[in-house]
Design brief:
Growth Hormone, Chain: A; 454 residues; 2 domains; globular; 2 strands
């Protein structure tokens, strides 16, 4: 308690054990991110069936993927600042409803590639708003000593949702056609919305910043710590700076300009690599003589390595600091990605190297999601996360395109993956440099040490 009659919310959360209520908030955010992963990935699983039905070429489907990613980028850039103004809860619920409805409409209405492009763009807008605000919400209900762990574990919902789309499509498409996947991907978010309306609270830190939500803050605290006595008339604070004006502008004030740009470089390079590998790894390795089943398995293990790293990495980030853990992780990712082109001489070696690459790269990306959520103060947290993800989406758009250009130029497989390794190395350098900035050092010094026995 900062002063008599005043409760500092972050300090209070740091003194409490993580409650079932906080876990429930993170689980609801994980459910949103799971469906986000499902609906983001599902279109890729449908392309062969759509090509057969619409009788179009493979290149003709390229704009469908681009439209979805463009919508994701715009949604992340626009809806992050909106959430910092009106609250996380409304944007999370509205985004979930939007991408659910648009996915369902895609299944019902899409009769041409042009129709798919338009519908996937609007689906992407909803998807772009869901993820950054789920990350911000989870971070704001977590004690600072465990923010990275809770955010990274919550974010596991995304790759699990993407993997689930792949597994389910293997059964649903042969039995019911490709549209059945879109019906499922649309109905599930719509069904989740009533649960979110009933159970998902507003961010407690956002409520404190509003200054006139004392009763709601007290109600939430009573659910987090039922044994805590909160006298009537208690005031709440979060011990952070407040800001007025355009939220994006605050990303470049108070010493945040350099680390913000460096963080954007990390997101851009990281997502460029993830989408380059996801899109081209099976094709390039198969062209190099690897059996198609092994080539596809390497991509699956790339994702699986990322899930394992995410589950393990949160505690390491909380214990040793994001910069000390994530910069070496990206350096190792650079070595592993660069080695992919050489590993095609041996299927077992390819599977091992792909797993290590996913462990370092996808785990690193999940870690920088957590870093973005803890680096920015509450009043611009969704803006900071949303813009970092939005810039990263430009990288995700560039990744498959860069691969296609290099293949058209007849670059060798080794050269393409070495270039990917260089991109990961640049991310490692940017993270190291970010950790040396004054704003990052201040943020690290503010992190409490883990409680004894944790």
């Amino acid at each position: 308690m900062a002063t008599p009659g005043t409760v500092d919310i972050p300090e209070l959360l740091d003194r409490q054990n993580i409650s079932g209520y906080q876990i429930r908030v993170a689980a609801l955010c994980a459910a949103v991110v799971f469906l986000d992963g499902f609906d983001t990935q599902v279109i890729g699983n449908l392309i062969p069936s759509i090509i057969a039905e619409f009788k179009v070429t493979r290149p003709a489907m390229g704009p469908v993927g681009v439209a979805g990613l463009l919508g994701l980028m715009i949604g992340a850039l626009a809806l992050g600042p909106l959430a910092d103004k009106i609250g996380r809860r409304a944007v999370i619920i509205g985004s979930t409803l939007a991408f659910g409805v648009m996915t369902l409409l895609t299944g019902l209405l899409a009769e041409s590639v042009t129709g798919l492009v338009v519908l996937r763009f609007f689906t992407g807008l909803g998807l772009g708003g869901a993820m950054p605000n789920s990350i911000a919400m989870t971070a704001e209900y977590a004690p600072r000593r465990r923010q990275a762990t809770m955010v990274m574990v919550m974010f596991c919902g995304f790759p699990i949702g993407a993997a689930f789309a792949g597994f389910v499509s293997a059964f649903l498409i042969p039995a019911f056609g490709w549209r059945s996947m879109l019906y499922l991907g649309g109905v599930l978010p719509i069904v989740l919305v009533p649960l979110l309306l009933a159970e998902l609270p507003e961010s407690i830190r956002h409520l404190v910043l509003q200054g006139n939500q004392t009763a709601r803050v007290a109600t939430i605290l009573a659910r987090i710590a039922p044994a805590l006595a909160i006298p009537q008339g208690t005031r709440f604070a979060i011990g952070e700076e407040h800001g007025r004006g355009v939220p994006v502008g605050h990303l470049f004030r108070e010493g945040r300009a350099a680390p913000t740009v460096l963080l954007w470089i990390v997101f851009f390079m990281s997502l460029l690599n993830i989408f380059l590998i996801n899109f081209w790894l099976p094709t390039l390795t198969h062209d190099a003589g690897i059996a198609l089943t092994i080539a596809n398995m390497s991509t699956g293990l790339f994702q699986a390595g990322g899930v394992v790293s995410t589950l393990l990495g949160g505690r390491a980030v909380d214990a040793y600091g994001a910069y000390r853990v994530l910069s070496p992780a990206y350096f190792l990712a650079a070595l592993a990605i660069g080695a992919l082109g050489f590993a095609v001489v041996s299927p077992p070696l390819l599977l091992i190297v792909a797993t290590v690459a996913g462990f370092c790269l996808i785990g690193g990306q999940t870690g920088v999601n957590a870093l973005a959520s803890t680096f920015y103060p509450t009043f611009i947290r969704s803006t900071g996360v949303g813009w970092a993800l939005g810039i990263g989406r430009i990288g995700s758009l560039a990744g498959p395109g860069v691969g296609a250009i290099l293949i058209a130029w007849r670059w060798p497989t080794t050269g393409i993956f070495i270039l990917g390794g260089i991109a990961a190395l640049l991310a490692a350098i940017a993270l190291f440099a970010m950790g040396q900035t004054q704003a990052a050092r201040v943020q690290l010094e503010a992190q409490p040490s883990p409680a004894p026995g944790e």
